UniProtKB/TrEMBL annotation:
It is found in: Periplasm. The lineage of its organism: Bacteria, Pseudomonadati, Pseudomonadota, Alphaproteobacteria, Hyphomicrobiales. Belongs to the peptidase S26C family. It holds the Pfam family Peptidase_S26. Keywords: Conjugation, Hydrolase, Periplasm, Plasmid, Protease, Signal. One of its GO terms (biological process) is signal peptide processing. This is Conjugal transfer pilin processing protease TraF. One of its GO terms (molecular function) is serine-type endopeptidase activity. Coiled coil: none annotated. Its main location: periplasm.
Length: 176
């Protein structure tokens, strides 16, 4: 009888993290462990309107060579998006039809985007190839994070808006 109780208790203790993980994912909760935005617990809030400039969003990255390389280099973690990629938390800074120029800084419609200096190398010293620039295509978004080392549209360019999961709402976060 005591042995059976121990087995039940051990089984519960081992399955509790899985239950919490799936319950959190179903409730739209995600843990951010990247420095692009504050660390901690975030919630995906459904969007019941068009996406606007300034919206901080969760988005599944498309399965492109740029994101395959990002995964290989460790810029992206594993997650529940297609290709087992983790969703990104980024801010929408340009919408379809807006002109993007990439030089030392990002310019959107001729205006410098704050905190958008383009880095020549990543934290490991590998060369970073910036996006060539151009008009944001219909159905795409240009994304940014103010974190200096962020892997965002400065490097991978516009991404399809159909990957948006919702607004990124901080629940319990902190900046280290």
């Amino acid at each position: 009888m005591i042995r059976r109780r121990r087995i039940v208790v051990i089984a519960i203790l081992f399955s509790l993290p899985l239950v919490l993980f799936f319950a959190g994912a179903a409730g739209g909760f995600r843990v951010n462990l990247t420095p692009s935005y504050p660390l901690g617990l975030w919630r995906i809030t459904r969007l019941h309107r068009d996406i606007r400039i300034g919206d901080r969003i969760f988005i599944c990255p498309p399965l492109t060579p740029a994101f395959e390389l990002a995964r290989k280099h460790g810029y992206l973690r594993r997650g529940l998006c297609p290709g087992w990629l983790s969703p990104l938390i980024k801010t929408v800074v340009a919408l379809p039809g807006q002109d993007i120029e990439i030089g030392t800084w990002v310019l959107i419609d001729g205006r410098t985007l704050p905190n958008s200096k383009v880095q020549a190398k990543d934290g490991a010293g590998r060369a970073l190839k910036p996006y060539a620039g151009g008009i944001v295509p219909a159905g795409d978004l240009f994304l940014h994070s103010p974190f200096k080392g962020s892997y965002d549209s400065r490097y991978f360019g516009p991404v399809p808006a159909n990957g948006v999961l919702g607004l990124a709402t901080p629940v319990i976060t902190f900046t280290p």
